[in-house]
Specification:
Elements (H helix, E strand, L loop, with lengths): L2 H10 L5 H8 L3 H8 L5 E2 L2 E5 L9 H17 L4 E6 L5 H14 L3 E5 L5 H11 L3 E5 L8 E8 L7 H12 L12 H7 L2 E4 L1 H12 L13 E4 L6 H10 L5 E3 L25 H10 L3 E5 L6 E6 L5 E3 L2 H15 L7 E6 L5 H8 L3 E5 L3 H14 L3 E7 L3 E3 L9 H17 L4 H12 L1 E10 L2 H17 L4 E2 L2 E8 L4 E4 L4 E3 L8 E5 L3 E7 L5 E10 L2 H20 L3
Parallel strand pairs: 3-4, 3-5, 4-7, 8-9, 8-10, 13-14, 13-15
Antiparallel strand pairs: 1-2, 2-6, 5-6, 10-11, 11-12, 15-16, 17-24, 18-19, 19-20, 19-22, 20-21, 22-23, 23-24
Helix pairs in contact: 1-3, 4-5, 4-7, 6-9, 9-10, 10-15, 12-13
Length: 564
C-alpha cells in the first residue's frame, strides 16, 4: 500500500471532515506514514485503532467502510437487521450513528441503543431482538486515544475467523471509504430502518442475569464497593446486585460517570492494581470486604479483597476464574454429566484440575472469547456437551450462555455471591483460593509484554515469534521442553520428533510445553501493538512455583530482547 498515494487521496477530497483535515496538517512524516501505510485490520477484538485521520485510524470514513462491509455481509446471509451499541469513548456515539446511516442506506435496519451500554448487553440484544448481526463501538480498556468497531454474528458472538474473513473481504471491496453512501437518521426513522433501543431490552437482560444465581444461603450484608472506571457498567451492575438482595453496596462516585479521558486512572483496566486505587482508599475507610471494578465496555471484571494485613489484594484473572469455576461446579447440581468448561490456551491449567474433580471436561481454544462463543454454539446445536463456564486469564468470564461474550455484569454478580458464600463459611476469597492451591497444586502464572508500534514494530514482533518458532529449544528456565505447539502450522511437535495435528484455527502463536506441568506461549496481541508472552508453572510448594516462574520469565525475556 503506497501511503503517500493514500495521503494525497485524502488531501484532495474536497468534502472531507474539517477536523480530520486540520489534524492531517499537524502530523509529521512518520506519523503520516503510520496513519496511511495500511488499513485497520480485524484482530481478536475486531477493528481497533487510534482515533485520527488515515486509513489506519478510527474515523468516520473507516467506520463507514466497515459498516458498508457489514451491511453487505448481512445481506449475503439473507438478513435485514443489526443492533448497535456504544461505550463512553470519544466519538463512540458518532460512530454508532454513522454505522446506522450506512446500514440504512443499504436497506439494513439498525436497532441503536439510545445511550451507552455494555458490550454484553449488545450480545444479548442481538439474540433477544432476533437481529442478524451486531456492532459495539468500543476499544475496551485501551488508552483514551483509541476506539474500535467490534462485530457480532446472529448468535451474539464475535465473528470467528471464517466469518471474519468473509466480512473482511467485503470491507476490502469498498474501493473508497471517502465515498460510502449514507442516509440521514431522520429519514431512516421515517422509513422504519432505524429504531432506538431502550429499557425494554435492559429489563430482559437483567431478568436473565438474575437467573445465574445459585444460592441464597449467603451473607448478603457483605460490604461491597463497585467502580465502573468511568465506563458503561454502573446501572446494570448496581441493579443486578440490588435485585439479588445485596444491601451494602457502595459506588466510587468519582468514577461513576462516563468519562472518555478516564481521568482518575492511568488505565481503565481492572487487570492493573492502580485501577483499584480509589476503591481501595474508600474500602479502607469503610471496611469493605469486596471491591469490584469493570472496564469501560463492561466485558472484563476484577475483584479485590483484604488480606491478613488489611491491605487489599487484586485477584488475577486465573485466580478469579478458578474460584468461580469451583463455586459454580460445587453449587450447580443441575448440570448434566456432559458438562464442559472452556478456556483459552494461555489460561491456567488449574481450571482443568478443578473441572476434572467435578467430572467436567475441559476444552482449550485460541485466545479471544469469540472462540469460546463459537464452541458454545456448536455444542448447543450438537448436544455433545453442556456449557458450564468459560473464562480467559485476561479477566473475562461467562457464567450463562444467554450472552455469547465475556460478561462483567454476570461475573460481578457471581463474584459477589461467591464471596458472600465463603464469608458465611468463615473464609475470605484469598483463604478459599489457598485451599484450592493446597488441593490441586500451586499453579502460578505471569505475563510479559513488549510494546512495538508502527510498521517497524509489527515487523519486529513477527521476527521475534519466528525466532522462537525456528529455534529447537531443549530447555527453558531449567525445565525440559516436552513439546512445541505451533498454531500457525497446526502442529504439535514432541521432543522425540513425532508430530500430531492441533485441531484449532491457524494463528501466529507458539506455545512450549515444559516438564512439571509448566509452559510458556508467545502471541502477538490482536488489539494492541504488543507482543505478549504468557507463563504457567506448577508445583506442590508455593515458593518452588515462584522460583520456577522467575527463572522461566528471565530466560525467555532475555531471548526475545536479543532478537534484532
Amino acid at each position: 500500500m503506497d501511503w503517500k498515494k493514500e495521503l494525497n487521496r485524502w488531501k484532495e477530497e474536497e468534502n472531507i471532515d474539517g477536523s480530520l483535515k486540520e489534524q492531517l496538517e499537524l502530523l509529521d512524516e512518520a506519523e503520516l506514514e503510520d496513519a496511511f501505510y495500511k488499513e485497520l485490520e480485524f484482530g481478536t477484538g475486531g477493528m481497533r485503532g487510534k482515533l485520527g485521520p488515515g486509513t489506519n485510524r478510527m474515523n468516520v470514513y473507516t467506520v463507514r467502510k466497515a459498516a458498508k462491509g457489514l451491511a453487505e455481509y448481512v445481506k449475503n446471509k439473507k438478513g435485514d437487521s443489526i443492533v448497535i451499541a456504544y461505550d463512553s469513548r470519544y466519538l463512540s456515539e458518532t460512530f454508532a450513528v454513522e454505522t446506522a446511516r450506512v446500514a440504512g442506506a443499504e436497506g439494513v435496519k439498525a436497532y441503536v441503543f439510545s445511550s451507552l451500554r455494555p458490550t454484553p448487553a449488545l450480545s444479548f440484544a442481538v439474540r433477544h431482538l432476533g437481529a442478524d448481526a451486531g456492532v459495539v463501538i468500543t476499544a475496551s480498556h485501551n488508552p483514551p486515544e483509541y476506539n474500535g468497531f467490534k462485530v457480532y454474528n446472529e448468535d451474539g458472538g464475535q465473528l470467528p475467523p471464517a466469518e471474519a474473513e468473509k466480512m473482511i473481504t467485503l470491507v476490502q471491496k469498498v474501493e473508497n471509504e471517502l465515498e460510502v453512501d449514507t442516509e440521514e437518521a431522520g429519514t431512516l426513522e421515517e422509513k422504519g430502518l432505524l429504531s432506538w433501543v431502550d429499557t425494554d431490552v435492559d429489563e430482559a437482560y437483567l431478568e436473565a442475569v438474575q437467573g445465574i444465581r445459585l444460592s441464597d444461603d449467603i451473607d448478603k450484608d457483605m460490604s461491597i464497593i463497585f467502580t465502573p472506571l468511568h465506563g458503561t457498567a454502573h446501572p446494570l451492575v448496581t441493579d443486578s446486585l440490588k435485585r439479588a438482595g445485596f444491601t451494602n453496596v457502595s459506588l466510587v462516585e468519582a468514577q461513576a460517570e462516563p468519562d472518555p479521558e478516564f481521568s482518575t486512572v492511568a488505565s481503565p483496566n481492572p487487570e492493573e492494581t492502580q485501577a483499584f486505587t480509589l476503591a481501595m482508599e474508600q474500602g479502607q475507610k469503610t471496611g469493605a470486604e469486596l471491591l469490584i471494578a469493570t472496564d469501560p465496555d463492561a466485558d472484563r471484571v476484577g475483584l479485590a479483597v483484604p488480606g491478613e494485613d488489611g491491605e487489599y489484594r487484586v485477584l488475577n484473572g486465573n485466580q478469579t476464574g478458578a474460584l468461580m469455576l469451583d463455586y459454580i461446579l460445587s453449587q450447580n447440581e443441575e448440570l448434566p454429566d456432559n458438562k464442559i468448561m472452556i478456556k483459552t490456551i494461555v489460561t491456567s491449567e488449574m481450571g482443568r484440575a478443578i473441572a476434572s474433580k467435578y467430572g467436567a471436561r475441559t476444552l482449550d481454544t485460541l485466545t479471544g472469547f469469540k472462540f469460546i462463543g463459537e464452541k458454545i454454539r456448536e455444542f448447543e446445536a450438537s448436544g455433545e456437551a453442556t456449557f458450564a463456564f468459560g473464562y480467559e486469564e485476561s479477566y473475562g468470564y461467562l457464567v450463562s450462555s444467554f450472552v455469547r461474550d465475556k460478561d462483567a455484569v454476570q461475573a460481578s454478580l457471581m463474584g459477589a455471591e461467591m464471596a458472600a458464600h465463603w464469608k458465611k463459611k468463615g473464609y475470605t476469597l484469598l483463604e478459599a483460593l489457598e485451599e484450592l492451591y493446597k488441593e490441586h497444586g500451586y499453579y502460578i502464572e505471569g505475563m510479559d509484554s513488549l510494546k512495538l508500534e508502527g510498521r517497524a514494530g509489527t515487523e519486529k514482533i513477527a521476527r521475534i515469534v519466528d525466532s522462537f518458532r525456528e529455534t529447537e529449544l531443549k530447555k527453558a528456565g531449567g525445565l525440559e521442553v516436552l513439546a512445541t505447539e505451533d498454531y500457525q502450522s497446526s502442529e504439535r511437535i514432541f521432543a522425540d520428533g513425532t508430530k500430531e495435528t492441533i485441531d484449532l484455527p491457524k494463528s501466529n502463536v507458539v506455545k512450549f510445553i515444559l516438564e512439571e506441568d509448566s509452559w510458556f506461549c508467545l502471541r502477538p496481541s490482536g488489539t494492541e501493538p504488543k507482543l505478549k508472552c504468557y507463563y504457567g508453572v506448577k508445583s506442590r510448594d508455593r515458593r518452588r512455583s515462584e522460583e520456577l516462574l522467575e527463572a522461566l520469565r528471565t530466560e525467555v525475556s532475555e531471548k526475545w530482547h536479543a532478537v534484532n
